[in-house]
Structures are given as structure tokens and as C-alpha cells.
Amino acid sequence: MTNRNIKVSPIAGALGAEIHGVDLAKPLGNETFAEIRKAFDENLVIFFRDQKITPEQHLAFAGRFGAFDIHPFAAGLPDHPEVLPVIKEADDSGSNFGGLWHSDVTFYERPPLGSVLYAHDVPAYGGDTMFANQYLAYESLSDGMKRMLDGMTAVHSATRVYGNTDTAVTKFGAGVKSMTVRTGDDADETMEHPVVRLIPETGRKALFINRSYTLRFSGWTEAESDPLIDYLCKHAIRPEFTCRFRWQKGSIAFWDNRCAQHNALNDYHGQRREMHRVTIVGERPMAIGDSDRAAAA
Ligand code: SIN
């Protein structure tokens, strides 16, 4: 399909493309929507510049791709709970929200399709977001490693980030007062997902583990799992699998949470950054054998 309504300009070899020619404050025609969806599937993260959207318009755009998710631990805007403000004030210290390599809320049974992040207020420099292509992470492994991982599942949980112990959030909360983020015993619940997931739209396999939420491989202890998880998490963010997005006020990033990880860089101390995030519900991750089972049914 040749694009008739948008222009797609890749920003890196691995993933990421800027989309030109669309005003997201206006409703999308079906053809433009289909072109944007194709660019999303092909580039894993797409960016728009110079947009001016209200929370309602933000929700209208994201809503074309699926139902909204409400973050279980971080509070949304009072009038629009589906819009999560991601804020670091100039006098906040310590960590920032999303400031490590991760995929969002993979402890859900149905982790998100993706998120649409809109820049309200950006630092003069710093505060870029990085993304890493998890198709490339999988495809560049050895055949032996792929064969082993293809059949494995992993246990995910929010406990390390949102648990009631000395977790990332308790440390984060001490430094960042501008967001309402809670901890809770419900963070200890676990969910199993395939380590390698098949993305139905592309037919490609993506590595699906991350440092924030993957605790261990199913049937393995944490001590047994840690070295391999550590290796895979380092491998997954090799520089040649990444792109880096420099924000301006009015920029939007829409990432595919199924096959890309992201990391909000925390290098702008003393400056304010405010983003609004809308997250779209996804499907239960498909394991490699699931497509054969679906075809046989
Ligand atoms: C997030 O992980 O949702 C935050 C991304 C960002 O602030 O760049």
C-alpha cells in the first residue's frame, strides 16, 4: 500500500519513524488511519511533531487503536483518569517515571498494545526517550538460544516496582512529588507470558522480557534465571537495536509495547518535563506454537 495521506520518515536503522502530514486534533479518515497503523506495525514507534491536542483529542486518536487502560498504580488526570500525567518538576530529585528500560505493565494478563505520549512541557535539553526493537533482539540470537527460548515462559509481576517493600516506587516517591504513585500488596500477583511472542500483524517473533517486571523463567528459580535474564536484557538494548527521540513541545510518540522497550532518560535535573500518556489495551501475548494451534482449529 502506498501512502496517499501521510509521509513516513525513518529516524534510525532499527526502529522509529516520524509521520508528516496529519493533524491529530482532527478526526482521522479511515484511509489515513490505515496508513498510520501500517507505519506503526512497520516502525514499532512513530512520532508526530507540532501537534496541539486536548485530552479529548488525545483520547480520540488513541481510541482508534483500542480500549483505554487505566494505570493500576499511578493516578490519571482528575477529569480524565485514562490520561496519565508523567511529570518531573524542576525541584524533584532522584528517579523519573519510566526511567529504565522496560515494556509497560507486562504483569497484566493482556499487556498494552502501546501508549500515545504527548509532550506538554519539555526541558531545553535532555529528557529524550530511547526505544529498542525486540524483533531485532530476538532475530540476532543464535539458533540454539532461539530454540530454547521459543518454548519458554516467564513470570512477570509488579512487585519490584510497586510492591510494599523497598521498591523502585518507594525510592521514586521520595524524590518525585509531582505524581501520585501508590504501592500495594496487589503488586505481588504474578502472570506468565511466553518469552518469545508472535506479533500477529507482522508474523515476526519478539523477545518479551524486561528488567522491571520479569522475575524468573517458569519452572526455574530466580537464582537460575538471573544470569540469563541479565544477558537477554543487556542484549535487548544493544545500541544498534535502538533509536532516540528528542522531544519538542507538541511532539507525540506512539510505541508498540509488544515488540519495543523504552527508557525515559533522566538527564535534565533542575528543569521541568510534563508528558501525558494514554495507554491502549492489548491482547494476551501469543506464543510461537499458538499460531499453529489457531491454524489447526
Ligand atoms: C513511560 O515509560 O511511559 C515514560 C516515557 C517518557 O516519559 O518518555
Keywords:
globular; three-stranded antiparallel beta sheet; eight-stranded mixed beta sheet; alpha+beta; binds succinic acid; Double-stranded beta-helix; single chain; 297 residues
Secondary-structure blueprint:
Layout: E1 7-10, E2 17-20, H1 30-43, E3 45-48, H2 55-63, E4 68-69, E5 83-88, E6 114-121, E7 129-133, H3 134-139, H4 143-150, E8 153-157, H5 159-162, H6 168-175, E9 190-194, E10 196-199, E11 204-207, E12 214-217, H7 222-236, E13 242-245, E14 252-256, E15 260-264, E16 273-280, H8 288-296
Parallel strand pairs: 2-3
Antiparallel strand pairs: 1-2, 3-14, 4-16, 5-16, 6-14, 6-16, 7-13, 7-15, 8-9, 8-12, 10-11
The protein binds succinic acid.
Succinic acid binds next to β6, β15 and β16.
- Coarse morphology: globular
Annotated CATH architecture: 4-Layer Sandwich
Q: Within the CATH hierarchy, at the fold level, what is the topology?
A: Double-stranded beta-helix
Q: Which ligands, by name, code or SMILES, are bound?
A: succinic acid
Largest sheet: 8 strands, mixed
The H/E string reads: EEHEHEEEEHHEHHEEEEHEEEEH
- The average pLDDT value, as a whole number, equals 94
CATH top level? Answer: Alpha Beta
Structural class: alpha+beta
Please give the count of helices.
Answer: 8
Q: What fraction of the residues are assigned to beta strands by DSSP? A: 25-35%
Helix content: 10-25%
Radius of gyration: 19 Å
The total domain count is 1
Number of strands: 16
**How far apart are the termini?**
31 Å
Which segments are poorly predicted (pLDDT under 50) over 5 or more consecutive residues? none
CATH superfamily caption: Clavaminate synthase-like
